[in-house]
Amino acid sequence: MNIRTELENTVGVQPMIQLNDVDLNPAHIRAILINEVVPADPRQDFYGSREADYLTTTFALFREAGLPVTTIQELLDAGIYITNAVKIPKTESTVENSAIDVSLPYLKKELSLFPQLKAILLMGDVAKKAFNKITKQTLQKNIVPAISTYKLRNSELYYGDIRVFPSYIMTGKNILIEKSKFAMAAEDIQRMLKLIQD
Fold it and tell me: What CATH number did the domain enclosing 111 receive?
């Protein structure tokens, strides 16, 4: 299945929306990492070029977590899919709520494509907010409490049978600079890896 084609065929095509142009077997995916927002240049996204900016920090996090990957295909082969909560590049320093709302139908459909999903990692506050909007629609409640990620990290949160891990943003230069958040995000990925490999 091609993710972009599937989402365009079921949700529709909208200007500015950037979707993952990647072929995969949805039944093979056990975990999804939801990053905050697509980059302005699609080549810098997870499924863009081999030297994409988003992959630099992603591979570093996975190496720190004990999975030494060097390509996005290796992550897919390990049953791990990465996407962005907001499918429109941000135009200001913060992500507009309207951008989350426009992107939500795509993210909701995207999550529904994976029948063997065991874990969802919410990489940053925007991902948590978008995911809560989905759970509010489907379950009439937020799955992720509105408290700091630091306090949530050891909570066992579930969306049906799927374990939800609130974590820290995984892209951008700040993640490498903020060593404590980098270490905690790597720990969260390590816990997710243990869950999907058991």
Answer: 3.40.470.10
